[in-house]
Amino acid sequence: MTAARPALSRRLRLMGAAISIGAATVLSSVPAFARGPEGIADTAEKVIDAVVNISTSQNVEAKGGGGAMPQLPPGSPFEEFFDDFFKNRRGPGGSKGGDKGGDFQPRKTNSLGSGFIVDAAGVVVTNNHVIADADEINVILNDGTKVKAEVVGVDKKTDLAVLKFKPPKPLTAVKFGDSDKLRLGEWVIAIGNPFSLGGSVTAGIVSAKNRDISQGPYDSYIQTDASINRGNSGGPLFNLDGEVVGVNTLIISPTGGSIGLGFAVPSKTVAGVVDQLQKFGELRRGWLGVRIQQVTDEIADSLNIKPARGALVAGVDDKGPAKPAGIEPGDVVVKFDGKDVKDPKDLSRIVADTTVGKEVEVVVIRKGNEETRKVTLGRLEDNDKVQQVNAKPKDDTAEKPVTQKALGLDLAALSKDLRTKYKIKDSVKGVIVTGVDNNSDAAEKRLSAGDVIVEVAQEAVSNAADIKKRVDQLKKDGKKSVLLLVSNGDGELRFVALGVQ
Q1: Considering 102, 125, 322, 493, which has the largest number of Cβ atoms within 10 A of its Cβ?
Q2: Rounded-to-integer distance, Cα 55 and Cα 499, Å
Q3: From the CB of residue 409, how many other CB atoms can be counted at a distance below 10 Å?
């Protein structure tokens, strides 16, 4: 047995050698394209003159608030140090002696980003955050020529901006490609101005598409491992045909440098935004006039929708286009203008990209059946007003209402006292929640005292007995969950699915 070991060991060594040689043979036969496309250099050379640096400057007023000279005892060892420090930071005309720290000198801040020319007449696309709040914007061409530019329009929601400058010479412009045709693993090229190193070319692949990283209402980023760093913002992401398929916008990094997680706004979105900014100087987005929420597995089960998909209509604006079209709370939108709707983000993006005033078909699921509605889209009016949620004050002196328990909730009829206590509008009808069991499913779904249950399983309720009766029936029918339509005090609706077993 001992004599067999060297022979076995020798055979294993020979087998290992054969595998290694075989592997080397396979590697030597791998085409060059598998190690990276040879066309990168040709593509970069063709488009690099269309990529520009964006230089911005901003005057910042330095105020002296909090910068007063510390009150030190005469002869203190720190007196001379602080005296010199504050004298050096005073602006022109700064006083001595009784000076309490007047305004410091205004200073100018500079920043650099990237952009690309889409029209030889001098039209440039970049990120809004690259030029935001700038007092002066300059475009620096690939040969170093510096030209002052002005803003044509910006869109904060997609972080895009269009600039215009007077060409000092003939320019190279690039075209948009179709980002929808990108495939995972496809090679792409990023060109820009990382860390002020203009004209830098990096390459990588498309790592993912339609990525939602919660940066805005219309997130649908292209993810790439092509190196993107600070200063690349606003620069183009090219396919190997030299077409712009995205605008490099942000990275995720614990260090501030590229770790292979870069994100670009897809060209399909960019082209539409650029077109509108050039035509109108602003974005004119479509508006359906509904509030929507996610169709969870529990909600889908309650509505007999398999698989869970679409956008659940939680509320309909009385003055919006959806109202006259017959769309109602509880409808689930699964198709809009011929495009499938997988989730609420999908619907938001599709509606926003649709032309204002266009009549479209909207397919909804209502009580298990598909229905088609025709809607003429309105225009979304953007505003930054934040809706304040009214506090719900406690009123220990009010008469204690008669309550009934169901689904981990204390329920009561809507009385005048309860409306006053929880500031509930007269237009809100239903059964009020006066308490929530902390260990219940209702607590996990963030139901709270002051919420009003308007419907149970898509049927209106007016008292606690109605709710308990319907829940008991659902249990007998073997249902795992019940769908509630819940309103806050202002009448804003949302759907909540609670377990009944």
Answers
A1: 125
A2: 57
A3: 28
Instruction: Give the single-character DSSP code of 437.
Output: -
Confirm if 240 and 43 have CB atoms less than 8 A apart.
Answer: yes
Residue 421 C-beta-side C-alpha neighbours within 13 Å: 19
Tell me which residue of 447, 456, 322 sits closest to 378, measured CA to CA: 322
CA pair distance 57, 118, nearest whole angstrom: 24
Q: Confirm whether 99 is a catalytic residue.
A: no
d(CA 412, CA 433): 7
CA dist., res. 303 & res. 440, Å (int): 22
Q: Which one of the listed residues 114, 129, 200, 481 is annotated catalytic?
A: 129
| CA atoms of 360 and 380, how far apart (whole Å) | 16
Cα–Cα separations (whole angstroms), residue 410 to 403, 406, 449:
6, 7, 9
Element (H, E) at 134: none
Closest CA to 241 of 142, 172, 183, 175: 175
Are 359 and 378 in contact by the 8 Å Cβ rule? The answer is: no
Choosing from 55, 114, 159, 227, which is the catalytic residue? 159
Rounded Cα distance, 452 and 413, in Å: 10
Residue 233 is a catalytic residue: yes
DSSP per-residue letters across 18-64: HHHHHHHHHHHTS-GGGG--TTHHHHHHHHGGGEEEEEEEEEE----
CB contact burial 3-22 (16+ within 10 A = b; e otherwise): eeeeeeeeeeeeeeeeeeee
Per-block mean pLDDT, blocks of 10 residues, the chain (501 long)? 40 34 37 64 94 88 52 49 51 44 61 93 96 92 94 93 95 95 95 88 94 80 93 94 95 84 94 93 91 90 88 90 93 94 90 91 91 93 43 44 79 87 88 88 87 88 84 82 88 86 64
Instruction: Return the structure tokens found at 466.
Output: 């109605």
What is each CA distance from 265 to 209, 382, 490, in whole angstroms?
Answer: 10, 21, 37
- Please tell me the distance from the alpha carbon of residue 115 to that of residue 192, in angstroms, as a whole number: 7
Residues with Cβ < 8 Å from 233, sequence gap 6 or more?
113, 114, 126, 127, 129, 130, 192, 248, 249, 250
Which of 233, 243, 241, 145 is closest to 196 using CA atoms? 233
Taking the CA atoms of the chain, what radius of gyration do you get in angstroms? 32
Which residue among 233, 258, 267, 302 is the active-site one? Answer: 233
- Strands 339-340, 332-336: pairing is antiparallel
Question: Quick one: which H or E segment has residue 126?
Answer: strand 123-127
Nearest 5°: phi and psi at 243?
-100, 145
d(CA 182, CA 220): 13
